[in-house]
Design a protein that fits this description.
The chain is of the alpha/beta class. The chain has a single domain (about 5-250), classed as Copper homeostasis (CutC) domain (TIM Barrel), CATH 3.20.20. About 40% of the residues lie in helices and about 20% in strands. The chain has eight helices and ten strands. The chain has helices at about 10-20, 40-50, 70-85, 105-115, 130-140, 160-170, 185-195, 235-250; strands spanning about 5-10, 25-30, 55-60, 90-95, 120, 145-150, 175-180, 195-200, 205, 230. α1 links the parallel β1 and β2. The longest helix has 17 residues, at about 70-85. It is globular. The relative contact order is 0.15. It is found in: Cytoplasm. It holds the Pfam family CutC.
Length: about 250
């Protein structure tokens, strides 16, 4: 048995580092600093040109909640069809109603647009009203994978819910633990939950190559420096891969 290590990336450089570190697949997005939004097609194509690795494309039209307008759902469905044509292996989707339940009709539309692509329900799941109710709905919808921290800030904090989800999934949906995942987190979570699929970014912060730095100008979130670059650390992925392989070798 081999565990699955997915790496969330938003650049070609991070994708290369993830692949070299031993990731089985990528979740591709842009704007990882804000939790990720739908990636550009040129970024997807450049990564496809550079390497042979499964690419799961995140479908998220904007930063913020997962309660989408009709126009946003239309955009999501069109993006899914586009990435299906480009050869993406999976669509990573999620939508909620104002009451905190899964937006089943929106999900059905997106799943229909995905055709034969695999479906991952992203961390909209972690802010839904009832994770176990959402799990059953996901089963009915034919979702393949649920990415979750167990409705906590980190997967380590959500260990008990993750354990229950893995049991209740009953092999019909793959529960993928995410949020704060590194080698130590896998070492802690895998034996306690039985989960063997993990999602990480393995990020490190690089200093900008800019020598001249204009002060007092900010292009986005005021809490973020314009001169910090997030990239996947190949070493962190290697360490996580090693721990996961050690755990699954015992099965």
């Amino acid at each position: 048995m081999k565990g699955i290590l997915e790496c969330c990336v938003d650049s070609v450089e991070s994708a290369i580092a993830a692949k070299n570190g031993g990731a089985d697949r990528l979740e591709l997005c842009q704007g990882l600093v804000i939790g990720g939004v739908t990636p550009g097609t040129a970024l997807f194509q450049e990564i496809k040109n550079q390497m042979d690795i499964r690419i799961h494309a995140l479908m998220r039209p904007r930063f913020g909640d997962f309660c989408y307008t009709r126009h946003e759902i239309d955009i999501l469905c069109e993006d899914i069809r586009t990435f299906r044509k480009l050869g993406a292996d999976a669509a990573v989707i999620g939508a909620l109603k104002p009451d905190g339940t899964l937006d089943v009709e929106a999900m059905k539309r997106m799943i229909d647009a995905a055709g034969d692509m695999s479906i991952t329900l992203h961390r909209a799941f972690d802010v839904c009203r009832d994770p176990f109710e959402a799990l059953e709905t996901a089963k009915e919808l034919g979702v393949n994978t649920i990415l979750t921290s167990g409705q906590r800030k980190s997967a380590k904090e959500g260990v008990e819910i993750l354990k229950q989800l893995a049991l209740k999934a009953d092999g019909k949906v793959d529960i993928m633990a995410g949020a704060g995942i590194d080698a130590d987190a896998i070492r802690y979570l895998a034996p306690k939950t039985g989960i063997t699929t993990f999602h990480m970014s393995g990020k490190m912060t690089l200093d900008s190559r800019m020598v001249y730095r204009k002060e007092g100008i900010n292009m986005g979130l005021p809490s973020m420096s314009e001169f910090e670059i997030w990239r996947t650390d190949e070493k962190k992925v290697e360490e996580a891969r090693e721990v996961l392989d050690q755990f699954t070798a015992s099965f």
